[in-house]
Fold this protein.
Amino acid sequence: MTGLPVSVLPLLLNCLLSSEGALFPPLNLSMVSLDFHPSIHWLPGLGNPIGTRYSVEFTEMKHFSKPDWNGPANCTNITSMQCFLELDQLFTDYFVRVMAEWKEERSNWTLLKHTFQLYKNTQLSPPHVRIFPYRQTVQIHLSHPVQLDRDVPLRFSVDLFCLTSDHRVQLIGKSISTGSLNILHLPAGYNYCINASAFYTQMTEHKNLNTTKCILLQNQSHRGGVAHISGVVVGVGVLLLLIIPTGIVLSTKSCFMRKIGNIYIPKALHIIPGTEMVLTPKPEELHPPPISITNTEFTAEAAHEEVDENPQRVYCERERCAIRCGSEDELEDTNFLREVDEADEIQPRKLDLYSSAMNME
């Protein structure tokens, strides 16, 4: 047995502890709260096996006589040795305890030695600091992430230091601000440092985290020369930005207009000598439609004679009148009437002696 290596002894101890059912509780419980986000931390019990799990519970102090322990899901049966708690009440005191588990064995509860309160035991992170130097004045703007999450009135402690030429740090002054601060009449040409921290009560003023920023407050003449040079540089840059695009646009437009002119402007007509040809217009011949004029003298006596002497002619005359008063679409009857008219024009007209005698009387 004396020849066993030292590394085997912890394994044997774990076996003996597990066989006896002894599991040590967690050690050195501590609560830390940063920006009102609390977390609990602990160390494993002496000799507890690897893979031991832990559970965390908390309760309010007013319920400690008949405690109603709450076990958050994110802090139950975990292998890590820290856990973040969600506590909403700022001014409530809480008791917190932790237990170890391994297989079916459980250790005793380890209780936090003191109660925990968010408002009293929270530490604030460094604030955000912005510095704006102007001539012999330094303007400071301060903010903190807690102002977005909690309705807690914060204040800021500001210390102003000056770095002298012999590399010494000189405290110029201290101030309390709620967000903005102006420091006037500072000598130019020195480096100034701002050390700022946030707090919500005087009890936590010295334990919160701080931040430091430094600037060089330049001489006004140097700043004026730099401002003048920077203004000239900016003016030249703006002028170049205006000239270059204008030149590009004008050159592109001229090239485009040349191309458009070569395509769409008509070219002069070139006459090739040696071939001459004259085109003479031919007038069109107009053919007016034929116009027929018929003069017919018709009297009652002549009608009687024509009926007596030539009844066939009278029949033809009636037929012709009937056809003229009819439809123009009857082409065959119209041709027939034309032939009758031509036959009538060929025959000589007879003298009406009876009518002449009556006229003489």
User: Anything to note?
Assistant: The chain has eight helices and 15 strands. The chain has a mean pLDDT of 75. The longest strand covers residues 190-199.
